[in-house]
Amino acid sequence: MNFVQSIESVYFKNLTNFKGRSSRNELINVLIFNLIFIFILIASGQYNIAPIIQLINFIPSLSLSIRRLHDINKSGWNILLPFTIIGLIPYWLFLFKKGDIGRNNYGKNEIVKYYSTNN
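The structure assignment produced for this chain is given below.
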């Protein structure tokens, strides 16, 4: 999934989708997009808009994080780990861990499906 497809998937197609799986590449692309967007807002002097954008971005980011946890066969409830001090490290490790290949409890890996239909 390329950069534009990742943004389109998170912000338009799967805005409130908490089921299924998301790839690590999709997460990284969305994080880069958010960092660039906030940097542009701050560099242009729009300090007061940045918190509003982050508030709007809350639900898509939450759904992406839960789908990302599903990709490594973890429950979406693991999103609560950062609320414990010790859970912050495993949470970030979970988000950036390589996803399961094939099917897991939360569905098929979309990348495997993509490659299998194009070969």
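Interim note for the steering committee: The two ends are 17 Å apart (CA to CA). Residues 3-118 form one domain.
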